[in-house]
Amino acid sequence: MDHVPLFKREGYNVNEKNKVSPYKKKDNIAGYLLLCPWIVGFLIMWLIPMLISIYYSFTDFNLLNTPSVIGIENYKRVFTQDKSFWKALQVTFTYVALLVPLRLAFALFIAMLLNRKHKGLGIYRTLYYVPSIIGGSIAVSIVWKQIFGNKGVVMSLLAAIGIEQKVSFLGNPNTALGVLVIMGVWQFGSSMLIFLAALKQIPNSLYESAMVDGAKAAQTFIKITLPMLSPTIFFNLILQIINGFRVFTESYVITGGGPLDSTLSYVLYLYRRAFNYFDMGYSCALAWVLVLIIAIFTVILFKTQNNWVHYESGGDN
Q1: Which of 56, 121, 286, 305 could make an SS bond with 309 (beta carbons 3.0 to 4.6 A apart)?
Q2: Sequence-separated (6 or more) residues with CB below 8 Å from residue 45
Q3: Closest among 292, 282, 126 to 193, alpha carbons compared
Q4: In angstroms, rounded to a whole number, what is the distance separating the alpha carbons of residues 75 and 286?
Q5: Closest listed residue to residue 34, CA positions, set 26, 45, 22
Q6: Tell me, what DSSP letter sits at residue 134?
Q7: Which of the 8 DSSP states describes residue 202?
Q8: What pLDDT digit, counting tens, does each position of 232-284 carry?
Q9: Residue 246 and residue 209: Cα distance in Å, rounded?
Q10: Is the separation of the CB atoms in 41 and 25 below 8 Å?
Q11: For the purposes of burial, counting CB atoms within 10 Å of the CB of 172, is it exposed (0-12), middle (13-18) or buried (19 or more)?
């Protein structure tokens, strides 16, 4: 009797513990049904096209012929034969290098202003967020093109103050990319809201202690605000780098990649290869090269975050 397990002596059935009640089964079924739209969308819109794209990147395919496998020839062509690839990569790198720090700095500045208590705060937040909602649309890009065009508002204002220019900012290879960067900085709303939420999580006691110690505003910003915001800065930095490399609408609508390919973004060049030249296999290879570039930047940021990102837990991340 002493050697009989306790659960057998008390009549306990182990299998009953593993049984799922009818109510739980219904909950599981309901959960799966609610997930179905997302799962179907993920399979149709993401996973299956991604696998097809990987396959096409190793083929010679122009949308009219049957894809024929050519191995890594498309990738060799990208790095050894395509000068336009390097030009588009240079333009995109320059765009990201200018856009990301300016957008984050401006978003943080506005977030700090909105973090103060004053009347109409909700209205200001909404107004500042509007550009991020409509900024990437075709209509706004057309308006932006009109503003900086030959007969736009900017040229008219310069002429009114005596500055005559024969070529608009969009027609000058040295300034066209800058116009796109300014438009990108204008779309700072999403980063601003994230910064604003993070600023509200910083304890006021830290600032009060700094004031008692006689710290100035610049010192509190450097010693308190920035370290406490570093996880949020890290998050925003990754998002903005990814979005910067994916820029397309502005370059396509406003400048068409010109003048002299000075605004030829990587995605715009990929689009041209696919739908202007019908070189679908090669464009798929370009797309996966871009994925690799973004992945490299993301890995570098994650590897270096311990040097400048400060988490409250203080643990390794």
Answers
A1: 305
A2: none
A3: 126
A4: 8
A5: 26
A6: H
A7: S
A8: 999 999 999 999 999 998 899 999 998 999 999 999 999 999 999 999 999 99
A9: 44
A10: no
A11: middle
